[in-house]
Design brief:
The protein is mainly alpha-helical. The chain contains 4 helices and no strands. The longest helix is centred in the last third of the chain and has 27 residues. The mean pLDDT is 85.
Length: 99
Amino acid sequence: MIKYFKDLWYGKKSLTVTNLSTIFPLTIYFYLINFVFIDGKLSFYIFSDILVVILAFFSLASIWRSSENENKLYSFLSKSFSILIVILFIYNGYVKWII
């Protein structure tokens, strides 16, 4: 398992595998935490939002590194989508609790 995450981090996996193994679980986790598990303690939500932001930065770095050898359009779309996901998670994790 550690080798798999190390390969993701260094960009040794293909861009499709990286997208499916980082962005897809993050969006499912984000949906479950914010829309399914409505009743809970505030500390749980703050911790889960901070965890999602950390994992989103991991997925951004993984996608950025694995997109070097892929199609230019596909790599641009993947990078753009991962940047939007990071911005959304930062807003949801930090700015939402400040405002």
